[in-house]
Amino acid sequence: MGYAILIFLNIIFPLAGAGIILAFLCSPRRKLLKNLIKELNERFVFSPKKQIDGGYIWLHAASVGEVKSAVKIASDLKSFYKRPALITTSTAAGRAAAQKETAFDVSVLMPMDFYYLVKKFIKIYAPHRLFIIESDLWPNMIIACGRNKIPAAVINGRISKRSASRYKLLLPLVKLVFKNISFVCVQSEEIKKLFLNLGMREEKISVSGNIKYDMIDAEPSRVENAKNLLNILKWHGSKRITLGSTHKKEERIALYCALKLNEVKFIIAPRHLERKEQIVKMMKASGVKFAILSDILNNINIDNFSAVASAQVLLVDAMGWLGAFYKVSDMVFVGGSISKNGGHNFLEAAILRRPVFFGKYYYNTPDVAQALLKSGGGVLVDENNFADIIQKFISQDDLIESAASAAQRTALSFKGATAETMAAVKEYEKKART
Asked: Domain 223-413 belongs to what architecture?
C-alpha cells in the first residue's frame, strides 16, 4: 500500500508542482520567485556540480533556521567521516545561508521530490550518508537512498502533533519511509512518542536534545552598531522591547501597546521582510511615530534628525540584526506565539539575559517554553494583557533582572545536544560494522 501511494504521488507530481507555483505567483510572497529560472536548474538537476570520489556527507535542511543549527554538527560529521559536506535546502534563503558557512563544501537546492530527479541527484553526487535536519522528510529522497544502500538518518528530529495527525492519513507511506531510515535523534521525549505512534521502531530512536541550542550566540554581532542607532534615536534613557520574528497579528498588538505606553520604545523585527510595505502601511494607519532601519543606515529622509529621534517604533527591515537588538533591549517578545505559528526561537533571547515574553502557541518547542515559564525567565502574554505585562516590568527593575537571570540559566541548561547526537552516530556506525 505504501508503494502504491508513492507511485500515485509521483504520477500527480507535475500537476501538483504546477499548482503550487501558480498559487505562489498569486501570493504576497511572489517576489521570492525572482530567480525562478536559475533555481529550476538545481530543482531539476540540469546543471549539477561534478561529483567527487568517495561521496559526500549529505545533510538536508528545510531553510535558514535548520541550516544555522546544522553548522556545528556538519563540522563534527566531516571530522568523523573524513569526507566533505554537501547540504541541500528546500528554500533559496536556506541555500544562501548555507553558502556563507565554511562547514558546507557544496550548497544546492534540494531537487523536487520526484523519484527520477532524486535518483539522478544521487547518481551524480554519490552521497555516503544522508542526515536530515529536523522534519523535512521527503519520501522519494529517503526511499531512493534506501534503494541505493545509502543509510539515511534524522537528526534533531521534530514533529508537531498537528503534523503527526496529518501523517496518519498516509500511514502506509509513512511506515515505508520509516523503514528506510537507519536511526533518529529527536529533540524530546514527547517527540519520541509521536514517532513511535507513527510506527518508528523504538530501538531506532534516541532523545538527544536540540542541536539548535548549541548554536545560540551569547555574543551577537552588530551590538555596537545597534547602540549607535539608539544614540541616533535618542532612546538610551527609555525602556526598550524588541519583538522578534513577528507576524501580522503580533505587529498590530505591538502598535496598540506603543500608543498606550508612550514611555516605552518598540523595535519590531518581522519574520518575513517582504511584508515591509504592509507593515509600514499598518504603522501609518495607527498614527504611531516610527523609523525604518534601512532609512537610517542609508541616511534616507533623515536630514532632520529630530524627526527620527521622536520615533517610538523602529522597524527592522534588514537581516542579521535581531540578536543585537535583543541585546540592547530590556525585554523581548518572540513572535509566532500569539499568532498561531508555533513560536520561534525563544532561547536566542534567553541566552542574552533578557526576559522572554511569548504567547500560548508554542507547540514548535514546548519543552523550552515550559522550562522558561517554570523558571520565571518566560512570561505568557496575549493581546489582552500584553500592555499590562510590559507596564509591570518597566516599573520594577528587580523583576526584569530576576527574569533575565532565570532566562539565561534556562538557556544554558539546553546545551549539549550536538555531543549526544554524535554519540548516536558513532554507535550506529559501530553496530553497522559488526
From this structure: 3-Layer(aba) Sandwich (3.40)
